[in-house]
Each structure stands twice: as C-alpha cells, then as structure tokens.
Design goal:
The chain is mainly α. The protein has one domain: MetI-like (MetI-like fold, Orthogonal Bundle), CATH 1.10.3720. The longest helix has 33 residues.
Length: 325
C-alpha cells in the first residue's frame, strides 16, 4: 500500500536568511583604510606630540637627566626626584602655596565677576551686543606675552595705575616689585579676563525658562530671591563647567608670572607659580629629570582635583530634567 503525504507534511520550513554583517562587504576594507588615512595626521600628532613625549617624560622623572648628558649616560635614580620634591626642596612647597592661593582667590572672583556681568548683559538694550564684545575682548588676548608686558608697564611705580591714583591724591605702590602686591597683580589680570566664562554664563541664562521667574514673582519672590531660587539652580551645570575649566586654567598659570617676574618668580618668590618653578628647574637649572617628576605630580594633582569636582557635583548640580550630575 503506497504511502501518501499531505502538502502540510511535504512543506519544508523556510531556510533562514543569513544576515550579512555591516561593513563586511568587499569595499569595507578599503573604506576602513581610507578612514585611517584621513585620521593619520591626528594619529601622528597624538603619538609624536602627546603620547610618546609623555612616556619619555615619565621615564625621565626616574632619572637624573640634565639635558647636557648623552642618553646612554643617563642614570636611573628611582624615586629620588620625588623624595627630593616632597622632603628636600622648600621652594617646591612655596610654589605649591603660591599656586593654591592664586587659584583659591582668583578663580571664584573671576567666576563671580563673569556671572555678574552676564546678568547685566542679559537684556535687550540697544547696543548690548557691543558691550558684550567689549567685555569679551580681553579673553581673546589670552595668556599672551604682549598683554603681560602691557600689564607690567601699567603697574610699575611710574605706570598708568599710579598716575591715575595720584590724580586723586592717593599714594601708589610699586605693585609688580612689591612682594606684598605682586601676586595680587597677577590675580587682577586673571580676573580681568572674565570674557570666556561670561559668554558661557550668557548662553546658560538664555536657557532659563521665563515661566519660572513669572511663577516666582507671583509667589512674591523679589529679584534677589529669584536669583537664589531660580537662576543659580538652573545655572548649576554651567557653573560646574566653568568652575572645572577655570580651576584647571588657574593652576596652569605661567605666562603672566614669567613676564612680570622676568622669569624668576620674584620679587622674593612671591609669584613663583608651580609651572614657573617647573620651567626654572628644567630649563634654567637644567634638571630635566626633576622637572619631569614635578610635571607628573602636577598631572596627578589636577586629575584628583577634577575627580573631586565630579564626585561632589551630584550634590549641587541639577539639570532641567530633574537629574543630577
């Protein structure tokens, strides 16, 4: 008796369609190669200007390299540079104190000035764009040598600042040559260049909904209360961003201190910033191994400070969607 099969029994399941991997076609290799070709200038710069010099610097920090010694004769000294830095170099700790003092004073005042000016310029007055440009102009000069030279001439004993004070019968000071005022002169220069954070604050103020101010006004909040309860919380991400950037920038200050002190950190080491101390150790005293150790300690310190900001930011940085940083 012959067996018969129904159409359902003879129907085979459809063969699975093999999914082709994206980018696995014949032209994928050429596209990948083209991508690396276009990236090659950046990769060469990363290796030649950043990665390899950093690794060499790390190696030199464990040697007594002094620029004049040939590479084969460089002596490995282990942690001697780091021990000297922390235990046998009073000038190093003085540079740390000067730099921390500068950052703790100049950075908050710079941010407060930038926020205050941004609040004043967050209006629709006629010509407000011109004032925004004028206030931002000093930041375009950055840490230029020309600006530092002009600043030194202004604060000399016979400079423009003392001439202005003399017009009102006020006795001036030799600001840049007085150990009690030289660092404050650098702080004033840093605070005066508040244009960059000001622009960022202005952008943040534009994003604050006007409905929040209207609701606060209905509840009876005055301008100061609106600033505390609406403006500051809504600006907290922008404040955090500016705080991190300006703190790092404050610790990296070099050009103004170098020019105002003629590269010595004077008078009486009152402007001996950390980076200036590093420069003197490496390029004046020719202790490149010791300077490399200072650079790596500086890198780790900046990283730790940034990590502290990010770890504590969740307690005071709030976003419009209700999330924390």
């Amino acid at each position: 008796m012959a067996l018969t099969t129904t159409p359902e029994q003879t129907r085979r399941p459809p063969r699975p369609v093999r999914a082709t991997r994206r980018g696995s076609g014949p032209g994928a290799g050429r596209e990948g190669l083209a991508g690396y070709v276009f990236l090659s200038p950046w990769l060469v710069g990363l290796l030649g200007i950043t990665a390899i010099p950093m690794l060499l610097s790390l190696y030199l920090s464990f040697t007594n390299y002094d620029v004049l010694t040939p590479w084969p004769e460089v002596e490995w000294v282990g942690l001697a540079n780091y021990r000297r830095m922390f235990t046998a170099d009073p000038a190093y700790w003085h540079a740390v104190r000067v730099t921390v003092t500068f950052a703790l004073v100049a950075v908050p005042l710079k941010l407060a000035t930038a926020l205050g000016v941004a609040l004043l310029l967050n209006r629709t007055w006629r010509g407000v764009g011109l004032f925004r440009g004028l206030f931002y102009l000093p930041s375009l000069l950055g840490g230029s040598v020309a600006l530092a030279i002009v600043w030194r001439s202004m604060f000399n004993a016979d400079g423009a600042v003392n001439s202005f004070l003399a017009f009102f019968g006020i006795q001036g000071q030799p600001w840049v040559n007085d150990p009690d005022w030289a660092l404050e002169t650098l702080m004033v220069l840093a605070i005066w260049q508040f244009g960059a954070p000001m622009v960022i604050f202005l952008a943040g103020l534009k994003q604050v909904p006007t409905e929040l101010y209207e609701a606060a006004a209905v509840d009876g909040a005055g301008p100061f209360r609106q600033f505390l309860s609406v403006t500051l919380p809504m600006l907290s991400p922008v404040i955090f961003f500016n705080l991190v950037l300006e703190t790092i920038h404050g610790f990296q200050g070099f050009t103004a201190a170098f020019v105002l002190s003629n590269g010595t950190g004077g008078p009486v080491d009152s402007t001996l910033m950390y980076t200036l101390k590093l420069y003197i150790s490496g390029f004046t005293d020719l202790e490149m191994g010791y300077a490399s150790a200072m650079a790596w300690v500086f890198l780790v310190a900046i990283g730790l400070i940034t990590a502290v900001f990010f770890s504590t930011g969740r307690f005071w940085v709030h976003y419009s969607d209700g999330s924390d940083s």
